[in-house]
Amino acid sequence: MVQVLNFILLTSSELADLRDLLKQSLVNSAGKDLFVSLYTSWCHSPMAIISLCLLAQTYQHASTVIQSLVEEDINVKFLVQLDKLIRLLETPIFAYLRLQLLEPGRYTWLLKALNGLLMLLPQQSAAFKILRTRLKTVPSYSFSGDQVKRTSSGNPHPQIIHHIPCGSQIFEDGDINQDVGASNSHNGINFTLRLHEFEQMQRQHRMHAKMQAQSRNSSTPSSKDVQR
Q1: Quick one: which H or E segment has residue 216?
Q2: What do you get for the CA distance between the two ends of the chain, in Å?
Q3: Backbone angles phi, psi at 152, to 5 degrees
Q4: DSSP string of 52-105?
Q5: pLDDT by residue (tens digit) across 22-57?
Q6: Strands, DSSP E only, in 96-184?
Q7: Nearest CA to 44 among 15, 7, 3?
Q8: Which of 60, 55, 64 minimizes the C-alpha distance to 25?
Q9: CB 152: neighbour CB atoms within 10 A?
Q10: pTM exceeding the 0.85 threshold for the entire prediction
Q11: pLDDT tens, 90-148?
Q12: Of 107, 113, 114, nearest to 173 (Cα)?
């Protein structure tokens, strides 16, 4: 169900306004509230969470989620969903993301997230070739440190960089925050807590899958029982 809802969110023309709101999750309170509300349900699916993060431009968190995946998470179902996402990245919906690749110095976390997805794909798959081809087009140059603050993760809203209040900083994933000490919270989004929520949900799903497998194995008669 979550995968279906996620696909509708990413593709439906009627939800274009919601997508635009999510893109402002790091600088807009309404966008933040929407992101946090969806996160609780979306964290049932790793690919749904990754898609949500790419849409909300929380690229560092997307990269962290990708690296938190374990062997049990990367199954056939996951790879099918990943294939769909890679193809969606080539559509007009994610045009803003592809344009951000023109500034690799400002969107390092985006590059890291996309390369992380590339590493999860089988090399012989069409999705691997599509994403690898896209990443090959990323220019080798980057902005100097004087042009942007905190270039390690980039500002997904370059239009507001000229209106930063004095004393503010651009934090990870481009959030503008007055409180230098709030390194793990951006626009009120505690990404450390969100990651814990995601990992806990995935552990529950893995335990449930193991219990189901054990139940099926115990209910299946052995060859000796069949012979008897």
Answers
A1: helix 191-219
A2: 43
A3: -60, -25
A4: HHHHHT-HHHHHHHHHH--GGGSSHHHHHHHHHHHHHTTSGGGHHHHHHTT-TT
A5: 999 999 999 999 999 999 999 999 999 999 999 999
A6: 169-170, 176-177
A7: 3
A8: 55
A9: 13
A10: no
A11: 999 999 999 999 999 999 999 999 999 999 999 999 999 999 999 999 998 654 444 44
A12: 107
**Residue whose C-alpha is closest to residue 116's, from 148, 68, 178:** 68
Collapsing DSSP to helix, strand or coil, 145 comes out as coil
Helix 126-136 to helix 76-88 angle, to the nearest 10 degrees?
40
- Judge contact between 109 and 172, C-beta under 8 A: yes
Q: Which residue has the tokens 């007055």?
A: 178
Match 């980039």 to its residue by tokens. 154
Assess contact for 93 and 10: CB atoms under 8 A. yes
Contact 186, 172 (CB under 8 A): yes
| Dihedral of alpha carbons 46, 54, 7, 77, sign | negative
Give the position of tokens 């946090």. 36
- For the four alpha carbons of 86, 190, 178 and 26, in that order, the dihedral sign comes to positive
Tokens of 215: 């139940």
**For the chain, which residues make up each domain, given as ranges?**
2-205
Quickly tell me which residue has 């209910």 as its tokens: 219
Place of tokens 């990943």: 82
Amino acid code (one letter) for 141? Y
